[in-house]
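Practice problem: predict the structure.
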Amino acid sequence: MKRCNWANINELMKNYHDNEWAKPIYEDKIFFEFLILESMQAGLSWDIVLKKRENFRVAFDNFDYQKIASYGKNKIDELMKNKGIIRNQLKIKAAINNAKQFIEIIKQYNSFSKYIWSFVNNKPIINELKSDKDILSSSLLSDKISNELKKCGFKFVGTTIIYSFLQATGIINDHINDCFVKNKY
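Answer:
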């Protein structure tokens, strides 16, 4: 089976690639999970984040944005002591802030899913890529969404983070053309 080369690092990455990456999602909770994980990845490798994913799940109350929005100083202190996650205070505070903004978008659009999918008219973008070298790190779409999220008050949502977020959630399918997962979803 041919898969995207970036996934061949280890079994965890292969499993993520084969079963999650670029699979369209529509559940707000999963969107929020990836928003946290992608923002935590800034400056690090995705492999590091995946290895800590379950620790994040426990530390961040199963990615419950309602609970995270109410985190205060004590919870921030607790998270900063948690060696199982990425202990970056700016990223932790951004996760709390983003939970609040996420809730506001849900109030306005009835779901974050409806909001984010509206940028692509509810249809995934399937890029034609011959190799991993053709995969972009940003696009006009990620620029636009990044700017819109920033206007809404989100933090750690630069265009590269958002492009990765769009790939992770299946809004953009960047599997290379001969990857066995390309047309799976």
